[in-house]
Every structure is written in C-alpha cells, then in structure tokens.
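Could someone model flavin-adenine dinucleotide with this protein?
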Amino acid sequence: MSQSKATLVVGGGMSGISTALELSELGRPVILVEKSPFIGGKVATFNKYFPKLCPPTCGLEINYKRLRKAANLSLHTQAQVTKVDGGPGDYTVTIEVAPRYVNHKCTACGECAEACGSERDDDFNQGMAKTKAIYLAGHMAYPHRYVLDKEACDEADLPKIKDACKYGAVDLDETPQTLTEQVGAIVWATGWESYDVSKVDYLGKGELPDVITNLQMERLADPSGPTGGKILRPSDGKEVESVAFVQCAGSRDINHLPYCSGICCLASLKQICYVREAAPNAKVYMFHIDVRAGKYEEFYAKIQADEAVEIIKGKVASIFPEGEGLRLQVENIESGESLKVDLDMIVLATGIVPNTADLPFEATMDDYGFLMLGDAPGIIPAGCVRRPADVATVVQDATGAAMRTLTQE
Ligand SMILES: Cc1cc2nc3c(=O)[nH]c(=O)nc-3n(C[C@H](O)[C@H](O)[C@H](O)COP(=O)(O)OP(=O)(O)OC[C@H]3O[C@@H](n4cnc5c(N)ncnc54)[C@H](O)[C@@H]3O)c2cc1C
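Reply:
Sure, complex below.
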C-alpha cells in the first residue's frame, strides 16, 4: 500500500510514536514532530510501569528499535507546527525547527559536556538536579545525540565545547529552519501536563520543599535519577520514615479541575511500591476521595493488604510545616475522626491537563479542554490530549487514529 501524501503526527510521546510507527509499518510516509529535543514524552521519565512494575525502558527500547528501522518516517525534534491550512487529504503545514547545535556525527561520547562549565536546570529530573548546558535527557535519550541549550551556556564555554568534540559534531552556526510540507492527514498527540498544583493553596506545593508532585516521585525513585533511587527528603536529604500520598490534588474539585484525572490513583499505588522497596521501614499513607483502580483492582487489593500502608478515605484539608517535617490535617470520612499526621514527605497526585496551548487550528474541545474529533478541519486527536489514560489505552487509541487517517486520503 502506498500513499502519495505523508501524515503529520504532532507529539513524540507514546501516542505519537505509536501512531507514526503503525502508519510507517503500513508503508505510509510519516512526519513526526516533537517540540522537545528528545522523544518518549512522560513515559521516558518514569521509574516503573503499573501494574507489573517493569521498567518502561523495555517498551521504549522496542519502539526506538522500530523507529530506527522505519521507512519513510522523518522525525523533527525541537520542532513546532505553527500554521495549518487546507483540510483532510490536502493540508499545507508550516513547521519551525530550532537549532540543536549538534549534528548527526555525534556519538554521545560526552566529552563536550565534560568540557562545559555552564549548567542548566534539569527538566528531565523535574528540576531536582542540574545538567551541563550541553546534555542528553537520561540514558535512554532518543535521538541519542547531545543538544546545546545556548541560552544557558556562557560565551566562554562555546569554543571549549566545540574543540572537545573530535568528530566535528558541534555546529554553533546552525540556524532556525522553517519547513513547509503538504500532508494528507494530521494526528495531534501532544499529551498532557501536570495541573499547576501551587494554585491549590492549602496543599503547600511551591512553599514547602518536602511536598513534591507525582512526576518528581518518579525521578526520585529512579536508580538513574538525582538521588540514585534513594527516596530522600528534598529539604535535607534525610531517608524518609513516613510518606503520604494525597489524591485528587486539583482533580475532582470545582475550583480547579472538575473531572477525574483517571490515572493518578494507579500512579500513587505504584509509587507506594517504590517507597516500600526503597525504604521498607517507612510508614506509608494514602488519602483519597475514593480509589479508582479501573481494570487493576487486584493491584489495589495487594497494596491494601500491606500492613505498613494505611489507606484512608478523606480529603486533605491542610498541609503545613511542623518541627523538621510536615503535618497534614484530614477528616477520616469513615470514622468521622479528625486526624493530624506528622510526615517526612508528601506526594501530591496532581491532576492532568491536556497540552493544547497555542493550537495552530480551530479546535473542537470538550468542556474540560480535551480535544475531540471535530468536523473541521478534520484533525485527529490521539492519546492523553483526548482524555487521561494509561499507556496501554493510548497505544490502542493511537492505532485507531492511524486507521482513521486512511479514510482521509
Ligand atoms: C505520575 C504518573 C505516573 C504514570 N505511570 C503510568 C504507568 O506506570 N503506566 C501507565 O500505563 N501509564 C502511566 N501514566 C500515564 C502515562 O503518563 C500516559 O498514558 C502517557 O504519558 C500518554 O502518552 P501521550 O503520548 O498521550 O502523552 P505525553 O507522554 O504527554 O507525550 C506528549 C508528547 O508531545 C510533545 N508535545 C507537547 N506539545 C507539543 C507541541 N505543541 N508540538 C510538538 N510536540 C508537543 C511532548 O513534549 C511529549 O513528548 C502515569 C501518569 C502519571 C501522572
């Protein structure tokens, strides 16, 4: 089967990668556009997958292997679609690509980073560490090629970085590019972001360093993360003796996100396992409105049976500093008891918001801002930009989106 026009897939997370691979493996030309320097989306930053608790690196590696072999698939990183004209079967799109300053000759040997004195906040590690201004995002980074954050780099470091590369891969003269492409169909798979939980003022995020988000917890627990997999209190590096997971941090709240973010209960149940493994003597709490484990009830039951874990139904009322740690106030809805719990660290199960900033087309959205299949201009949403979901579900969704493009020839 062949198609003269390519399909444009926007977003290089699990949804976008899966859509692009399904199409490419059917013999269709595909252009995959990712705004950051590396693909993989949120999954690339996870320590383990629920419910099997296997590392997501296996799934990613299989997909990266398929990508390396994919015919007719062009990947643009640090790229954004800024204009969409036309309709199904005949779109003209404009793609702006930022310079990487490191070309295809890079072997990822790391000598450029060693020569570089400038540092930047490590967004891959959720701001809990620094990288050099020339860096790779994690050991699985794809493409496995360094990127230079020129704004974070001192002028004096630039020639040192260039001279350190014996392969001639550092190209400081690269300039931004504007590409114009004709495509037959567009799949929008830009995923999700965490709700800005500092807006939920009674939960203490932003003011209290030991109140972290669930994405930060993924990096803390990861052996390749900023603490080498030890679950340490951010303020002073103490090994945690008590941790609470606070559900619905922003979700199911009419003042914030009225909807259920779908995935956070399972993410917290998984992260309870991280704490039980890394700090077996720590006491663990989970505070929730109700636990929504969906098809993974057995996984939930296993954690309920663990005596070191206390799962309490109650919406947390406040979090504040107490001594060297934190105190959390909550009413146990089942017993009617008002509780004050002292803790070393609190993990907020932050809500999910769709990544739909600055869309270059008129979108059809639901009441909460998730993209829907609209009549015009026929752009097909896939994955978490459509609704919160786990990886298995977004991969199925991506396959559906790929098939739908075939009807738009
Ligand atoms: C704490 C936590 C833990 C989780 N753990 C698990 C788990 O163990 N197992 C599981 O099955 N699910 C888990 N999930 C759910 C999982 O994160 C999602 O299913 C998955 O991220 C969905 O992939 P996606 O491609 O739709 O979105 P994303 O992962 O968000 O990927 C979207 C991609 O699009 C890119 N992008 C964004 N905007 C643009 C733009 N304008 N142009 C170009 N590119 C853009 C982004 O940079 C990103 O690479 C967890 C969720 C949370 C919150």
